[in-house]
Amino acid sequence: MTASAPNSVKAIMLLVLGLVIAAMGVYVASAGDAPGAAVLGFVLMLVAIGLGVRAIRNRLSTRVWRAAIAIGVIVAGLAAFLTHGVSITAPLFAQAPDVPSSSEATSSPEWATAIERAQAAARAAVIAQNLPGLSVAVGTGVDVIWAEGFGWRDVVTRTPVTPATRFNIGTAAQVITPAGATSLGLRQTGTDPATAWSPEHVGEPEEDFPGFTAIHDLILRPIGISAPRQPLPHDRATFYVPATFWHDVTTDPRRGRRLMYMRDLACCADGLAFASTPSDVVRFALATHAGSVDGDLAGGRVMSLLTRPDSGVVVAVMSNIAFAHTTELARQIADDFATPR
Predict the structure, then answer these.
(1) Residues 198 and 65 occupy one common structural domain
(2) Is the peptide bond preceding residue 231 cis, with omega within 30 degrees of 0?
(3) Contacts 24+ apart (CB under 8 A), 248-252
(4) How far apart, in Å, are the Cα atoms of 135 and each of 207, 250, 316?
(5) Domain check: are 152 and 198 in the same one?
(6) Is the domain of 112 the same as that of 36?
(7) Structure confidence by residue, pLDDT tens digits, 37-69
(8) Which CA distances in Å does 182 have to 118, 185, 272, 276?
(9) Which domain holds residue 21?
(10) Confidence band of 35 (pLDDT split at 50, 70, 90)
């Protein structure tokens, strides 16, 4: 063995270690929701760069450094896969009491028991589906009798959902029209530019530039350069879709989440996103006698309006992640309010 062999082995190990740390840094920064994740990821990537520079200073032969990079990429891929699986699928809330909530006072104590059951059902849904946020409103007669928000409208800043939080209602905008909302004086309902809901607007038009997505996802966003303004202004909920890993497209929020991109807003007509609160949707349904409707966004359910003509109860449930089970929850809550207890 020549005298340079130990140096070559050392350099290979440094390159492999550097690539692994770089992969971990990228995924910690991009998958971690907690504040400070971007900083930690940036530090890890700086360490990786330092190790890489130190390895290059050993003046490896072309064959050796190519082999080192090949080995490092394989090991880094495995490390990234494991890190991704652990970080992004972690539950947002450990148990039901941990789910924050904000409510509006009910108009009558006769609904107290029904509200308690509905609150328990909403918290259970947040835990079971790993939802970032959820908002519910129930009405009967001519107005809302209960409204409450659960969880976070923005995961990074942990800004809570309130009854005033506005959600993108997706395809339900075809039923709850802007003209009808205006005539009824619904102040928290209407259209916004779609770009206001997706500040990064990855997919248009920047994605037309080759490599933009890779640069954005692997470099700019992990170190915090292109992080969107959070929380979104005007009580907008930050919207998410179930996470994807490489080309593994999921429809299960329990597997984690990523920010909604502009391309996820395909159902928004003319670049406008229609937003509302559950309370306004309930008032709209009570005033117009609208029927039940579900709203989809990015291919998955984000809201449900359920009307019960037999009992006069109207329920609206909204979430800020696609593929939430809002329909099932609306039915359960409607049953709780069907008869005062």
Answers:
(1) no
(2) yes
(3) 251/299, 251/300, 251/322, 251/323, 252/323
(4) 33, 23, 8
(5) yes
(6) no
(7) 444 555 555 556 555 655 555 555 666 656 666
(8) 30, 5, 16, 12
(9) 5-87
(10) very low
Please say whether the beta carbons of 278 and 314 come within 8 A.
no
Do 332 and 211 fall into the same domain? yes
Nearest in space to 87 (alpha carbons), one of 26, 18, 129, 153: 26
**Distance set, CA 231 to CA 60, 83, 238, 287 (Å):** 48, 26, 7, 32
Question: Among 87, 115, 142, which residue terminates a domain?
Answer: 87
pTM given for the model: 0.74
CATH number at residue 275: 3.40.710.10
294 strand-pairing partners: 304
- Cα dihedral across residues 24, 26, 30, 33: positive or negative: positive
Tokens at residue 334, please?
């409607």
Domain boundary at 38, 58, 87, which? 87
Q: What is the rounded CA–CA span in Å between residue 163 and residue 329?
A: 17
Domain count, the chain: 2
Cβ neighbors of 159 (< 8 A, separation 6 or more) are 152, 153, 230, 231
Three-state secondary structure call for residue 319: strand
Q: What pLDDT digit, counting tens, does each position of 111-159 carry?
A: 889 999 999 999 999 999 999 999 999 999 888 999 999 999 998 889 9
pLDDT tens for 228-269 read: 667 899 999 999 998 865 555 678 898 888 888 787 887 777
Same domain membership, residue 105 and residue 60: no
36 pLDDT tier (thresholds 50, 70, 90): very low
